[in-house]
Amino acid sequence: MITFLDIEYDEKSKKIYDFGAINDKNKEFHNASLKGFLKFIKGSDYYCGHKIIEHDLKYINIAKGSNVIDKDKCIDTLLLSVLLFPD
Questions:
Q1: How far is the C-alpha of 83 from the C-alpha of 75, rounded, in Å?
Q2: Phi-psi category of 17—alpha, beta or left, where left has phi over 0 and alpha has psi -120 to 50?
Q3: Which helix (H) or strand (E) holds 59?
Q4: pTM of the full structure
Q5: Exposure letters 16-39 (e unless 16+ CB within 10 A, then b)
Q6: Nearest-CA neighbor of 41 among 9, 65, 16, 5?
Q7: Measured between alpha carbons, how far is 80 from 73 in angstroms, rounded to an integer?
Q8: Could you tell me which residues are beta bridge partners of residue 21?
Q9: By C-alpha distance, which of 8, 4, 2, 3 is closest to 34?
């Protein structure tokens, strides 16, 4: 299963104020609950997002206090965009 995700993080408050995710089973999650988000992504084989490695993972791991998602299981569309649009 692959889960596409994005978070909204506030630099001032140092908090994630929204988690958004959808998986390949067309199930969606849109909420501010870290606990609910972690339950939603549990069992995913891969995680995809734009700037997921440098942004989303960083703040998810800080919020949880540990590595929640293995970086090796991430597909970062920021890196792919350079290949698709080299100019």
A1: 13
A2: alpha
A3: helix 57-64
A4: 0.84
A5: beebebbbeeeeebeeeebeebee
A6: 5
A7: 15
A8: 5, 29
A9: 8
